[in-house]
Amino acid sequence: MRARLEKRIALILLLLGAGLRLRAFFSGRGLWGDEAHLALAVIKTPFVKLSEALYNLQAAPLGFLYLSKAMVIQLGQSEPILRLFPLLTGLFLLGVAYGVAKEVRLPVLAGLFFLLLLAIHPTLVYYSSEFKPYGSDAFFAFLLLYLALRVHRLDTFLSFSFFFIISSISLFFSFPAVFVFGGLIGGLLISRYRQKRSVMRFGIASLGVLFLFLAIKVYHLDHIRHASILTDFWANSYPPLSISATAIKFWFFWPFQFLSNPGDFLFKGLWALLFLCGSYFLWKENREHAGLLLLPFVAAIGAAILHLYPFQARLALYLLPFFLFVAAVGAQGLYRLLREKGRFLSIVLIVLILFDPVQSAVRRFVTPHQPDNLKPVMEYVAAARQNSDRIYVYYGAASTAEYYALQLPALQGLQFGHEHRQDIRAYEPEIDSLFNQPGRTWMVFTHAYTAHEMNERDFIVMLAEKRAKRLDYFHAFAGADGYLFESAGQP
Predict the structure, then answer these.
(1) Domain locations in the chain?
(2) pLDDT tens profile 318-354
(3) pTM of the model
(4) Distance from first CA to last CA of the chain, Å, rounded?
């Protein structure tokens, strides 16, 4: 009877997670800049050239690119089609999480708590409807953990073969899968170090997967290094190897960056404590399981130290399910310890843990996250544009506007602005050229750059208002704006 109730509660939590992800998917959110960059790369790059340097200097796993391109060719290039694979992997992650909890044989409270955290975590929900591989990274990472746990429990040729086959496939769909694989292999080898046959089996198969990874790297990953924008953007995320006050400060605060992003935790100290306690309880209960859950973190940190892959922000999202699992174990252990000293303290602990993720889930269900949603602005401009109207696109909105120009014929003939962050006055001749001739000009903005308390959108609009009369303004979501000006031309 109790087991049936536990399964029903678990099913409710899984359905809750699926509902939150479907709500985000069907919210009608337009593509934002990063998504539009990758979408244009997939749409404009021929199928046979997806393994080469991509349009807009984008980078994504080969499997993700090929599958996305095939879906675009067969089903179209709308936002739901582009985001379908991330949605499916986000939903599948929920099922895999249930399987992992069963394999580890978590206590009931810890297992249900883990499923709740995974179901409602805002970052995991958001990336299940974003056209980027970060959400699918989390799915493949946790799928490999589930299969490794089965290898550990069954120790059969079939479970072993299936683990390595799926590991090989995952390398095509996820860059960080190789680091997760390395950590899991380390855990399996440690647990089998006395069984020579198993060690040899793991060693041979690991060499095969490593060879496959090297082939992918030579053929595809080196193109990423040529994308200087990407490498420069993440350069400061790698830990310094020197001994200095700056380096010590970096190493101290580095783990807490994970708690901020992708963790999005309000009480970071509490979650750090939960993770440490969970690691201890797991190690005390089952060292093999602890190794499989914790060694991927060691591999990820090692990759960051070697400057192979950043351990920061959305690129580290693949480790978030691992973190939530360990933290759930820690929460259950602390709950039991506090309950022995009084019910009040244990209730306070649960409230502190659940307050932020629950309120965030409710808030985003009511009002889904809409970062730099330019879609309503572009639709408004397309509907109101007259034949002779010009459309100026701020450089931060270029890829998004270009994507929607493919969907809306009325948006043809866009005029793209240039970046002048180092010399903001350089925008003046650019705006002068727009209004030297009489007529109407639309100005579209999103992802506007701000420095020294000066927002580039505000500055450019100020320049436009000195040269022309504002006729219209449209704003639907934060960070996305459209203006209509009419000028008499150069006097």
Answers:
(1) 2-366, 375-487
(2) 999 999 999 999 999 999 998 888 788 888 899 999 9
(3) 0.92
(4) 86
